[in-house]
Amino acid sequence: MSRISGVFAGLKAEGRAALIPFVEAFDPDRETSLALLKGMAENGADIIEVGMPFTDPMADGPTIQAAGRRGLLAGATLKGTLALVAEFRAGNAHTPIVLMGYLNPICSYGVASFCQDAAKAGVDGLIIVDLPTEEADLVLPDAGTNGLDVIRLIAPTTSDERLPKVLAGSSGFVYYVSITGITGTRTASAEDLARDIPRIRAATDLPIAVGFGVRTPEQAATVAKFADGAIVASALIETLAREDADAVLRDVKRLSAGVKGARAA
Fold first, then answer.
1. Which of 138, 152, 246, 257 is paired with 42 by a 20 to 30 Å CA distance?
2. Residue 113 to residue 102: CA distance in whole angstroms
3. How far, in Å, are 20, 138, 181, 232 from residue 236 at the CA level?
4. What residues have CB less than 8 Å from 77, skipping those under 6 apart?
5. What is the pLDDT of residues 122-168, one digit of tens each?
6. 168-178: burial string, b at 16+ Cβ within 10 Å, e else
7. Domain map of the chain by residue range?
8. 205 φ, ψ to 5°?
9. 49 catalytic, yes or no?
10. How far apart are CA 34 and CA 10, in angstroms?
11. Exposed e or buried b for every residue in 11-28, given b needs 16+ CB within 10 A?
12. Catalytic residue selected from 24, 27, 49, 238
């Protein structure tokens, strides 16, 4: 069983959803992003998503675009991001790490080499935002050989007919993009989630995590009532840019409390 599957199995037994916060590698510098990785794991993060900075992040809103730019200016590379994960993994053997990014840098690195190096560093899963379903075989074989989950994105506009095609070969969990648009904008309502999550569950046995627009403990709690995980990114990046890493960790702790109390409430 992979670390990701193990976490979701344990949380299902507890009767609660996962909190999945986001860190952009090297934002604003390597030391801070490493401190955030360690601190998030200590303050309630069940899985951590790590952004791989890229010059053309088409799915991201201004907040994460700016974080990626800061990371690149601080010297972020794919090798540097993997080394960051490896340093985190040296002190934490249990919290799953999922890399989120774009296909171009992975192809430039070499897909086979990237998957091998990611697995060696302690990465558990990959979210490749712009990997088309029809070209998933670019990554799936090497990811599978190296024990990496490939987590696919589902949108509100994904039809019932297309769902099985998009999810073919996916593992770990399903990332439900709960809004049409870019990261960090509006938030899906309880009514939206009550309508959409059952439709996805009918097509897969994988856990479903909801992202794009989840910002507050209350919104995370709403997600946790319907889905298996709440992903929070832009709100944490904004806190980091406005305040500091300690403030981000306080937010993570509050988000974790919201998720943990959602179903009990």
1. 152
2. 16
3. 11, 32, 19, 7
4. none
5. 999 999 999 999 999 999 999 999 999 999 999 989 999 999 999 99
6. ebbbbbbbbbb
7. 3-262
8. -95, 0
9. yes
10. 26
11. beeeebbbbbbbbbbbbb
12. 49
Among the listed residues 234, 211, 222, 233, the one whose alpha carbon sits nearest the alpha carbon of residue 259? 222
Q: Which amino acid is at 221?
A: A
d(CA 57, CA 62): 10
Nearest to 128 by CA among 149, 95, 103: 103
pTM above 0.90, yes or no: yes
CA distance 70 to 114: 23
Q: Could you give the CA distance from residue 88 to residue 155 in angstroms, rounded to a whole number?
A: 31
The answer, yes or no, to whether residue 265 has pLDDT greater than 90, is no
Active-site choice (60, 149, 196, 251): 60
Alpha helices (H) in the chain, listed in sequence order: 3-14, 30-42, 62-73, 78-91, 103-109, 111-121, 140-145, 163-167, 190-201, 217-226, 234-242, 245-262
Amino acid at 174: V
Q: Which amino acid is at 14?
A: E
Q: Which amino acid is at 80?
A: G
Question: In percent, how much of the chain has pLDDT > 90?
Answer: 87
Q: Which among 175, 186, 123 is positioned nearest to 152, based on CA atoms?
A: 175
Q: What is the DSSP string of 192-247?
A: HHHHHHHHHHTT-SS-EEEESS--SHHHHHHHHHHSSEEEE-HHHHHHHHHS-HHH
Confirm whether 149 is a catalytic residue: no
Q: Which of 44, 49, 28, 4 is nearest to 233 (CA)?
A: 49
pLDDT in tens, 93-108: 999 999 999 999 999 9
Yes or no: is domain 3-262 CATH 3.20.20.70?
yes
